[in-house]
Amino acid sequence: MNYETIYQIVTVLIPACICFFAAKGIIHYFQLESYQFPGYYHTLNRNPVHSYLPGVCAAAASALLILLLPSPDRQQGSGSLILWLLAALFVLLACLLGFVIAKLLTVKKAKKPFVFTDRIKRLYVVYALVLLGIAALVYHLRGWKLISMLWPLLLPAVVALAGLLAWPIEKLISEMYFRDARRKLLSNPNLIRIGLTGSYGKTTVKHILGTILSEKYPTLITPASFNTPMGVTRAIRERLTPSYQIFVGEMGARHVGDIKEMCRLVRPTIGIITSVGPQHLETFKTIERVAKTKYELIDALPEKDSRSYFYDDGSYCLDMYNKTAKTKTLCGRNPDTCDVWCDQVTVSPEGTTFMLHIKNKGQIQCQTKLLGDHSVQNILLAVAVASDLKLTLKQIAHGIEKLQPVKNRLELMKNAGGFTIINDAFNSNPVGAKAALEVLRQFPQRRIIITPGMVELGDREAEYNRIFGTQMKDCADIAIIIGKNRATPILEGLKESGFDPANIHRVDSLDDSTKLLHSIVHPGDTVLYENDLPDHYQEA
To answer: 332 and 312 in contact (C-beta within 8 Å)?
Structure first.
């Protein structure tokens, strides 16, 4: 092979080698968005520096190496070994430059780090084949030298193409695991299968339900926030054994049809809808579409021998209850309309006490470490299910007393500095944020809130964040707002409500908020961390 051919091959391989390594941060974003293309493109646009700059740097590095690569006329008479060593050197340099680009432009200290799962490994194989395919195509084009310098600018699109080509493979693999999990789930005809969904509160209700039901039955709940088809599939395949009598599957959704797909796996006979609200409006667009998707759970229940549970929110959930013809239960505060209700609710920094009433079964005094009036709503839904599964009032009350806060969801923590932390950093939505503020209000002054605001609220995101700012007035004494553009409506709401300007602080990052907090916090203060944005929502 003459050097002219080697020169052309190396020229088209240089950008492929650089891009293979430089795309790590972009592929990480794809992983964070659960390999969903709409979310991936939204993330790219939210993070232009980390999304598009790797391609720009890859193009610049490709141009530099291609221009430095000795041309054929300068290598006439060189031995073949020298030519091959020269080619190998430039390919190695390309790989090294790609690695450096990834190192410099990948998000540092990621809260959810890049994980080389089996799926990522398969994606990288497809991605490598795509890069080789591009190199082969460019090799046969006119202007191959210039094209080799420029095509890395399309790096995010190349990653998307690899994801698209890998999708049929992943669909085949996931369907195989999916069917195996379903077979395992249905192999025990006596297993009670419970499906649980909602805009918010579903993970908390799941843990409450698991704790109470465990007073009588061996109960398996999906761990952490495993609420996608593959997450629930994994939980079933790895954790479900014949000893369990009840399985509780949390069902998350970002698109219409997601819950229907989850029900195809779980085949629930009991369905619980915790709430309907403006969550994931970025993908759902309207609350009506959210409600329609949540109701897919009720539609999937068998006509006979099934039961559905709703909370009387006076809105979407109540409408769902009213239109449901299948056996149903309503929970809430109104004894005239609800099957399970409570009164005499007392909320304090130590927890919550209330009188629990179950229709035709009686009443019992309950106490829990869970914070906030809204925690009672979650408890009532779990109690309704437990009652229908024949738990006694004493078993239910004992289970309620054992409840512990779910990690990062209004979790009370004592700091070595003598102040109290309320950790509600897992997620945030308009209803949950307001409830968290009400919890903070129960604590003595001084009360400090640290928050970046709320996301995934579509076109109404700024409006909800502004309202959030106004709600802080009577619940907090000091507000530390994290971020740049997203912080603006919260700050506007604070000023609109008459919050003391001297006690309003805006910082760029969570690290900056920690430094500021340590400079102003006193022993005895209470600090609420409301939401902690994932890496793909950070503002550059």
So the answer is: yes
Would you say the pTM of this structure is higher than 0.85? no
- Please state which of the ranges 92-106, 157-171, 443-457, 463-477 shows the lowest mean pLDDT: 443-457
Diameter of the chain measured on Cα atoms:
99
Q: Is pLDDT at 282 greater than 80 in this prediction?
A: no
Nearest CA to 43 among 107, 134, 130?
107
Taking residues 355-369, what's their average pLDDT? 95
Do 284 and 290 touch, CB atoms closer than 8 A? yes
At 259, the amino acid letter reads I
- 297 CB-near residues (< 8 Å, 6+ apart): 195, 197, 251, 259, 262, 263, 268, 271, 272, 273, 308
Using the structure block, give the residue that is written with the tokens 């430089």: 22
Q: CA–CA separation, 96 vs 497, rounded Å?
A: 54
What pairs with residue 126 in β-bridges? none
Return the structure tokens found at 432.
Answer: 């949950």
Distances (CA, A) of 202 to 196, 222, 225, 259, 369: 6, 11, 9, 13, 18
State the pLDDT confidence band at 385, using cuts at 50, 70 and 90: very high
* pLDDT the model gives residue 527: 95
Q: In sequence order, what DSSP letters do the residues of 37-102 get, joined into one string?
A: HHHHHHHHHH-HHHHHHHHHHHHHHHHHHHHHSPPGGGSTT--HHHHHHHHHHHHHHHHHHHHHHH
